[in-house]
Here is the input.
Amino acid sequence: MEHIRLPKVENVRLLDKVSPRRSRVGTFYLTATHTIFVEDVAGVRNETWVLHSLVCSVEKQSATASGSPLIIHCKNFQVHHFVIPLERECHDVHLSLLRLSQPESYEELYCFSYKPNVGDEERRQEWDFLDLKADYSRMGLPNSLWKLSPINQRYKVSDTYPADLFVPESASPPVIVGSSKFRSRGRFPTLSYYSKENHAAICRSSQPLSGFSARCLEDEQMLEAILRSNPRSDFMYVVDTRPKVSPFCALKERPA
Here is the structure.
C-alpha cells in the first residue's frame, strides 16, 4: 500500500476504442492487487478489474483539454484507455501503477503482506494443506525400488521442482545432477505417480537442452535406473509433449 500515491480518483472516463461516444464515467481506485474502475449509472453498478500482475505496460500521454490519457496494456492483450481529469492525478496514478505492476522482489507480492484474520496456528496449518510425503506414502513409497532424495533441498538443483523428490533407488547423486544439467531448468526425470499393485511408474522431466541430437551419459543412466525400478516391464516409453512444430518432437520407445 505504501506504493499507492493516490488511491482514488473521481470523474475518470473509460474510453470505448470502438465507439468513443460510448465512454463511461466513474471512479478509479488503486488497491494493493487491482486497479478498479467503478461506473454507477441509474443505480446500476459496473466494475472493471485489472490485476496488477497482468499489467504489461502503462503509458501516460500528453494532457489534452478533456484530461490526461492513461493507457494500460495487459499481458492478456486487453487495453484499457482512461482519461483522468487532472495531469497531477494522472502522474500519481501512473507512478503508482508502474511500481505496483513491477515488484522489485518477491517479498513485495501481495501474498507475503496479506494478514488474514485467523490465528497463528491456523495459518501454519494452511502451509501444510498439501503434504507431499503423505501423498507418496499413500502410493506405498518409499520402498525397495524408489527412495526420497534430499538432493533438491533448498531448491539447489531445480528451483521449479519441490524440495522432496522420489528417484530410483539405484540413482546416485552424481547421476541426478548430471541429468539435471542436461535438461531445461534442471528438471531431471523424477517420480510423479506410482502403482503399488504392479509397480508401474510415471516420471516427468523437461526437454533436453540440446534436443535429441546430443547425448548425456548421466541422463541415459537415469533413464536406465527408472527402467530397473519398473521390474514388470522390459521397456519404457519416453513421450515428448512439445508441439509438432518442434524439430525434436517425437514419440520414442526405449528398449531395455
Q: What stands out?
A: The chain has six helices and 13 strands.
